[in-house]
């Protein structure tokens, strides 16, 4: 099953929607269980999310499809971040994927074929596309200096931009804007985001000119820039490996 840019009909012939997935409203007992969980459980992994980043991503197999993304970031250490990615910052946002972010130090040690799946972040930061909503620019500067030398791998598991009411099909590999050929973000998409947060990406770009460019961006990242090719995932039946019988 190869990823497609076409909208798929929802199950049961219902028109595609990106609002809410099909299903009945929550019952009172479910509300009680959820509130009890909030009160009694630690939810430690979620509480480690300390940053909200808003930026843009493009589908590796179809760069005409571009989305605004909201990354909720957990810092594991100086060289590794993990992000839960949503399609908005609202209370009913859809969890659409996961992104991992590595420093250049770790990236350089990855196998060559693995490096092809990652994208660099320098352009989207320098271009003012990557923002931490509500955080003053001066507060972000130190972090942005570090992030220009990082690489990300983003798998989208729920293509709400094409109207999928549920996570359907194979995951899609996403790439970062790079500002060349099809790697530009559509101006109306950027304007909509900027208007929502009261920011000006153009001014951010000017103010970020002082952020130093990385001395080296590995050319095996941003694979599409070098080859004009993206990645699409097929789902194929395969022979199952069975467990050996227990003694």
Write a structural description.
The chain is an alpha+beta fold and 247 residues long. It has a domain of 163 residues. It is 26% helix and 23% strand. A six-stranded antiparallel barrel has the order 1-2-3-4-6-7. β2 and β3 form a beta hairpin. The longest helix has 13 residues.
Topology:
Layout: H1 28-40, H2 44-47, E1 49-59, E2 62-77, E3 80-86, E4 95-103, H3 104-107, H4 112-115, E5 119-120, H5 122-126, H6 137-147, E6 150-156, E7 172-175, H7 187-197, H8 201-207, H9 223-227
Antiparallel strand pairs: 1-2, 1-7, 2-3, 3-4, 4-6, 5-6, 6-7
Supply the key terms.
single chain; about 250 residues; alpha+beta; six-stranded antiparallel beta barrel; about 25% strand
Distance between the termini: 39 Å
Helix content: 25-40%
Mean pLDDT equals 89
Shape: globular
Strand content: 15-25%
List SSEs in N-to-C order.
HHEEEEHHEHHEEHHH
* Beta-strand segment tally: 7
Rg over C-alpha atoms, rounded to the nearest angstrom: 20 Å
Pfam families: DUF1264
InterPro entries: OBAP-like
Organism: Coptis chinensis
Protein name: Oil body-associated protein 2A
In short:
The chain is built from nine helices and seven strands.
């Amino acid at each position: 099953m190869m990823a497609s840019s076409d909208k798929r009909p929802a199950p049961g012939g219902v028109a595609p929607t990106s609002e809410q997935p099909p299903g009945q409203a929550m019952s009172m007992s479910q509300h009680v269980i959820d509130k009890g969980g909030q009160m009694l459980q630690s939810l430690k992994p979620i509480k480690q999310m300390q940053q909200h980043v808003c930026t843009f991503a493009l589908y590796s197999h179809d760069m005409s499809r571009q989305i605004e993304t909201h990354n909720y970031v957990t810092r594991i250490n100086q060289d590794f971040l993990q992000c839960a990615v949503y399609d908005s910052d609202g209370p009913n946002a859809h969890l659409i994927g996961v992104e991992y972010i590595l420093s250049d130090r770790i990236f350089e040690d990855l196998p060559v074929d693995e490096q092809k799946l990652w994208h660099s972040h320098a352009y989207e930061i320098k271009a003012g596309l990557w923002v931490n909503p509500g955080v003053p620019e001066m507060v972000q500067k130190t972090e942005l200096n570090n992030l220009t030398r990082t690489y990300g791998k983003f798998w989208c598991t729920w293509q709400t931009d094409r109207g999928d009411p549920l996570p359907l099909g194979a995951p899609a590999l996403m790439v970062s804007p790079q500002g060349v050929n099809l790697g530009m973000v559509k101006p109306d998409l950027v304007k909509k985001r900027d208007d929502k947060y009261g920011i000006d990406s153009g001014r951010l770009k000017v103010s970020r000119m002082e952020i130093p460019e990385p001395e080296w961006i590995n050319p095996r990242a941003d694979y599409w820039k070098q080859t004009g090719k993206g990645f699409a995932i097929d789902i194929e039946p395969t022979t199952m490996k069975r467990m050996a019988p227990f003694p």
